[in-house]
Amino acid sequence: MSAEALRLEAVSKSFGGLPAVRGVSLSIADGERRLLLGPNGAGKTTLFNLVTGDLPPDTGSIRLFGREISRMPAHRRVHLGLARTYQVITLFPRKTLAQNLELALLGLSPLRWNPVALPSRRPELRERALAVLERVGLRAAADRRLSDTSYGEQRRVEIAMALSQEPRVLLLDEPFAGLSQEERREIQRQLAAIPRQVTVVMIEHDLDVALSFAERITVLHQGQIIVEGSRAEVVADARVQEVYLGA
Amino acid sequence: MRFWVIQSLNGLALGGLLFLLSSGFSLIFGLMRVANLSHGAYFMLGAYVGLSVLNAGYGFWTAVAAGAVAIGILGGVIERVLLRRLAGRTFSQVLVTLGIAFIIADSSLLLWSGDPMPLPVPRSLTGAVPVLGVFFPKYRLAVVGISIVTAAALWALLERTRLGAMVRAGVDDMEMARALGIPVPRLFTAVFCLGAALAGMGGVLGGPILSVYPGLDMDMLPLALIVLILGGPGSLAGAFAGSFFIGFLYTFGQALFPQLAYVILFLPMVAALVLRPKGLFGARAA
Amino acid sequence: MIRALPVALSSLLLLAPALSPSDFYVNVATQILIAAIFALSLNLLVGYGGLISLGHAAYLGVSAYLTIWLVTRAGVGHLPAAAAAVVLTTAMSVLFGVLALRATGLGFLMITLALGQILWGLAYRWVSVTGGDNGLSGFDRPRPFGIDLASPRAFYLATAAVFACAFVLMAVLVRSTFGAGLQGVRDQPRRMQALGWHVWMVRLVAFVAAGFWGAVAGVLYAYYNQFVSPHVLALTSSAEALLMVIAGGAGTLLGPVVGAVVVVMLKNVVSAYVTRWVLLLGLVFVAIVAFMPEGLVPGFDRLRRRRRRRRTAGDA
User: Fold this and answer.
1) For FRET with C245, which of A55, A186, B45, C76 sits at 20 to 30 Å CA-CA?
2) In C, which residues are within 8 Å of A122 by CB distance?
3) Which domain holds residue A200?
């Protein structure tokens, strides 16, 4: 409870001359549900990319459970318990749902280096994949190609893949984007079922859905944090209203 | 001293030829993101066309023009018929250019036989002139001059004409160029024509110096690639500087360390790629 | 999922050429298998790894040169020479892979091309070691266990055995959990990284595996030709291999084999009737890339499925 899952200190990132993230410091407690809000271009996804290692920071430190990771290769951070989803779903459309899931399961398994282990001879891999799909209600579609499923189902698969790695910190980048009302409810159900001990940080635009999920909210604007606090505090803040009225 | 002057002038001449070869290559890659693997073949075919025109009794400069025009047209047709068909699939486009290279190379063998053939120097440029204490072939100096004039003309084209502005826009940001209504497919064809024509012209001009022979295409292509790497895609200045740098490097390398000439040529390129791969290819928005 | 019928048929197909009365056709078959191993090795990089290399001949060539040099110039026995050639060439592929994988896409292509050209230049110029343009010769095939490999049939069967091993092992590799990862890295490298896969290392392993099998093909090449010259390291050599892979179908197991058949047949058989077989090869290649870009094997597969669907629809 007292452990700090993620701590950023004075993190900055510029592209060419354009600053995307400017001196951001934040602290997210273990098991917390944090929401990152902000208009387009506020630097939210860039911040995610810095945490996951898709981009290196220009300055600042990033700590995962006290461990400095800002220079650590991205894939190694995943092994420390970090997982994420992307704004645009970039999975493997010609593979089945089960195969997509297997790639996630293999990512942390020593089997990923095995050049002679045939999946057909490793039934436990498929069984684990099926179990995960069962939990999100997609077991029946396990052998269907990803491209033959709806966008909402693909999003559920993506989140399931991240969760299948039993992460300690999960980063969700606009999980509700482009979904219908019904599909959003499905995702909400999925998110509600995330184990309590997983720290979740979400970027979202859909305020209604997101506000119900978040415990604390950090609002970014032009690469800097302008407000941070509980739901009530943030919604009432004048600066937030100003920023969003313009957006 | 004589040695250095002669080799420097040779380096300049080779650099000039390389510029004609690689300026087109660089423009095509910068704009279309296609590494035209048949570019060496265009150079070679231009030389062969020039040779045939000369054998038919026409003058040297007619041959140069013929080489440029013929290869330019060929390039345009290939772009229009094959490359445009594969628009958006750069990998397939690159492979098609590789296939075209094979076709051109073998057709040339069929049409002109396998013997290496030097092109005769035009009568107006035979003989040597004194330069810095040595006698240097007039023709090679002329080649340097022609390449500089061509560079200036290309610069004027890029900086002062609408076509040039469109090309520069496309090289910088293709998406934006499209959004601005620039007719991208036709622009591609035009640039491809131009690049091919330059290569063809270079081939004819290079004929008296390099001769023309089967394999010239695969000898020239890696050089164009090196200049592209060193000079940067789509950069005329880069192609200019890179061409002369490689011209010098190759000439001096051949003269001083014939055993290691090829290594000397490729090591800077490998070094550049290994040390800064992102800087050369990651910079532009696709 | 080893099904009996395809295995039986392929075995028969593999053994059939040994029965041919004509030495010429047995030799062509041997060339096809050597080219197929080489194309399959390149396909690990190109088809399954998504990394286009124009310098793969480096492994074929260096391995061939090493084999012949060790036996004829250093007096090493055949088996140790072949083994050393493969080991040393594979070690070279580790170094080249580290260099080439500093980039992807066109940068990777250029580095592999450059490294190949450097080796070709060395082979030409370093006359004291490589024999320069004349190459290395005076290399005879050995007689292990009393079998005279100078006989075309015996050599063909030995090659077929190596091919069978190579094919099976590479098939297992691409179907393995690592192989699934390699293809995932080919398709979505950023996603794979976010799932914990070490993208660079996966690619390097594929590069080295490709170099290893290329080296194996190189040893066979040396024994088949009993001669090696710089031509084996030329850009055209690498380009031909790429043609085989693309024409047959990158990313499939049969594709490179089919590609090898097409190219070698064109080179040897067609060239008796059509002197400009390279021209024909180029035309076929351009046609395939332009109209059937996945290659012959997936292309025909698609046509077959479409015809089947139309037939059943017609019946309904």
Assistant:
1) B45
2) 177
3) 4-92+167-246
Find residue C132's DSSP bridge partners: none
Closest alpha carbon within chain C to B276: C102
Quote the domain boundaries for residue C51: 24-233
Total domains in chain A come to 1
* CA gap B84, B80 in Å, rounded: 5
Residue of chain C nearest B104, judged by CA positions: C279
What DSSP designation does A142 have? Answer: T
Q: Compute the nearest-CA separation of A93 from chain C (Å).
A: 10
The answer to whether the CB atoms of C114 and B274 lie below 8 A apart is no
Number of structural domains (chain C) is: 1
Phi-psi map region of C251: left, alpha, beta (phi>0 left; psi -120 to 50 alpha): left
In percent, the amount of chain A with pLDDT more than 90 equals 70
Sign of CA dihedral C156, C158, C161, C165: negative
What value does the mean pLDDT of chain A take?
Answer: 90
- Tell me, what's the ipTM? 0.92
Q: Which chains touch C (3 or more CB pairs under 8 A)?
A: A, B
> With contacts defined as CB-CB under 8 Å, which chain A residues touch C184?
92, 103
CA–CA min distance C165, chain A (Å): 14
Contact C197 A75 (CB under 8 A): yes
Candidates C102, C239, C282; nearest CB to B273: C102
pLDDT over 50 at C102, yes or no: yes
Whichever domain contains B56, its CATH number is 1.10.3470
Q: What is the pTM of this model?
A: 0.88
Whether A127 is covered by a domain: the verdict is no
Predicted confidence at residue A247, as pLDDT, reads 45
CB A202 within 8 A of CB A175: yes
Q: How large is the angle between the packed helices C235-248 and C57-72, nearest 10 degrees?
A: 130
Cβ <8 Å between A54 and C173: no
* pLDDT over 50 (residue C134): yes
In a domain, A59, yes or no: yes
3-state SS, residue C3: coil
Quick one: which H or E segment has residue A207?
helix A207-213
Widest CA span of chain A, in angstroms?
61
Query: Which residues 197-216 on chain C approach chain A with CB closer than 8 angstroms?
Result: 197-199, 205, 209
Q: Which residues of A touch C3 (CB under 8 A)?
A: none
Is residue A223 within 8 Å of A44, Cβ to Cβ? no
Residue C303 has pLDDT above 50, yes or no: yes
Which amino acid, one-letter code, is at C164? A
Tell me the angle at which helices C105-125 and B261-275 cross, rounded to the nearest 10 degrees: 160
| Domain enclosing residue B66, as ranges | 2-281
Decide if A156 is inside a domain: no
Q: How far apart are CA C246 and CA C268, in angstroms?
A: 20
- Please report where in the chains the tokens 């092992």 appear, as a residue: C169
**Residue A154 maps to a domain:** no
Tell me whether residue B244 is in a domain. Answer: yes
* B172 assigned to some structural domain: yes
* Residue A226 pLDDT greater than 80, yes or no: yes
Q: Does any domain span residue B286? A: no
Based on the structure, what is the number of domains in chain B?
1
Give the gap in angstroms from C-alpha A173 to the nearest C-alpha of chain C: 13
Domain at A63, CATH number: 3.40.50.300
Q: Which residue pairs, CB below 8 angstroms and at least 24 apart, start in B130-137?
A: B131/B5, B131/B9, B132/B5, B133/B1, B133/B2, B133/B5, B134/B2, B134/B5, B134/B6, B134/B9, B136/B5, B136/B6, B136/B9
pLDDT tens, B219-238? 899 889 889 888 888 889 99
Distance of CA B231 to the CA centre of its chain: 13
Residue B15 placed within a domain:
yes
Structure tokens of A187?
């995702």
C289: which chain B residues are within 8 Å (Cβ-Cβ)? Answer: 86, 92, 95-96, 99
pLDDT in tens, C30-57: 999 999 999 999 999 999 999 999 999 9
